[in-house]
Specification:
It contains 8 helices and 4 strands. It is α+β, with helices and mostly antiparallel strands. The two termini are 35 Å apart. The radius of gyration is 19 Å and the shape is globular. The chain has a 4-stranded mixed β-sheet with strand order 1-2-4-3.
Length: 196
Amino acid sequence: MVRLVTAKAARGGHVVRAITSSAEELSAESASFELITIGNAFQRLRRDEVARRALEWLCPGGHLALCWSSSPWTGDAGWQTALNAVLDEWRSQLNVCDRLPQDWEGARRARPDLAVLADAGFELIGHYEFQVEHRWTVAELAGFVYSTSFLAAPVFGDRAPAFEADLANRLESHLHNGALIDQVSFACDLVSKPTG
């Protein structure tokens, strides 16, 4: 992702300095960012600590965006039903019972993300949603699965090639010109650091 972002910025005539670090361990100067984005990951972080640190890192009036997207297995298309079956079977085979961190859904119900951000001192700007058609290849789907909190790449170990072959076999009949068509829903909760 660092290479992708750097290359994309360069094509647009921008310079991006990439830093690889966990959010909890990042060392950044106060008021050094105008925008912080967290994509499909806030639940995996120590939310209070990251919210507090992000507020410090942002310049006054700077923004933090919590970005979310639907997962490829949500929906009722035939390929999504087949994908769910494959994932359920592999979770069972690999004895994966919970997402990481455990009970993150309960923690978010008890104290929603926006409450965490408000408690840190952020002001809500708005909530935004839109949909985009996406054409998944089977390889992209496998990569997406490896990035999840319930079937991350290390869980598969040396069985990853067998998973990829199973996935390709089970989804082959659903491919249209080599792709699986999905309507991906995106959402963003945008908050800002007060200016005063």
